[in-house]
């Protein structure tokens, strides 16, 4: 994501290296809203057509990844693409639940190496118990939980785990 458009549209030149891009999202208002509509919203529709979908924020420290993804679920914080995509998924499931049985797997990871950050992964957003083993095998090293609504998602993300709780959880996963 570029915060300022370069002189030549669609291309950035750094020394002998040339980088192309499709769009510049500015720093004013809420860049995640535009980004959600342009980039993520089409991905949210994919699972309902049999496709997998991934959206990823990658870049240097301080470039706005966390802000844009919006991993904070507290009042006063901007609504990022994670919360918007989860709301869109659950709304779509709710609108189709009388017509289709869903088995939807959603993985989320926030990985940071500084401060008091923790790795959190949420997996297997599904009312079906048959997904538990697959989720466990795929995400064996991460804390995970099942949820069926965005409220449960918010509650899960707001939990603050102590080092002891994380150690005990990791130890219990090692027994599998």
From TrEMBL:
<keyword id="KW-0175">Coiled coil</keyword>
<dbReference type="GO" id="GO:0003777">
    <property type="term" value="F:microtubule motor activity"/>
</dbReference>
<dbReference type="InterPro" id="IPR036961">
    <property type="entry name" value="Kinesin_motor_dom_sf"/>
</dbReference>
<dbReference type="GO" id="GO:0051231">
    <property type="term" value="P:spindle elongation"/>
</dbReference>
<protein>
    <recommendedName>
        <fullName>Kinesin motor domain-containing protein</fullName>
    </recommendedName>
</protein>
<comment type="similarity">
    <text>Belongs to the TRAFAC class myosin-kinesin ATPase superfamily. Kinesin family.</text>
</comment>
<dbReference type="GO" id="GO:0007018">
    <property type="term" value="P:microtubule-based movement"/>
</dbReference>
<feature type="binding site">
    <location>
        <begin position="59"/>
        <end position="66"/>
    </location>
    <ligand>
        <name>ATP</name>
    </ligand>
</feature>
<dbReference type="GO" id="GO:0005524">
    <property type="term" value="F:ATP binding"/>
</dbReference>
<dbReference type="GO" id="GO:0005875">
    <property type="term" value="C:microtubule associated complex"/>
</dbReference>
<feature type="domain" description="Kinesin motor">
    <location>
        <begin position="1"/>
        <end position="176"/>
    </location>
</feature>
<dbReference type="Pfam" id="PF00225">
    <property type="entry name" value="Kinesin"/>
</dbReference>
<keyword id="KW-0505">Motor protein</keyword>
<keyword id="KW-0547">Nucleotide-binding</keyword>
<dbReference type="GO" id="GO:0008017">
    <property type="term" value="F:microtubule binding"/>
</dbReference>
<keyword id="KW-0963">Cytoplasm</keyword>
<dbReference type="GO" id="GO:0005737">
    <property type="term" value="C:cytoplasm"/>
</dbReference>
<dbReference type="InterPro" id="IPR027417">
    <property type="entry name" value="P-loop_NTPase"/>
</dbReference>
<dbReference type="InterPro" id="IPR001752">
    <property type="entry name" value="Kinesin_motor_dom"/>
</dbReference>
<dbReference type="InterPro" id="IPR027640">
    <property type="entry name" value="Kinesin-like_fam"/>
</dbReference>
<dbReference type="GO" id="GO:0007052">
    <property type="term" value="P:mitotic spindle organization"/>
</dbReference>
<keyword id="KW-0067">ATP-binding</keyword>
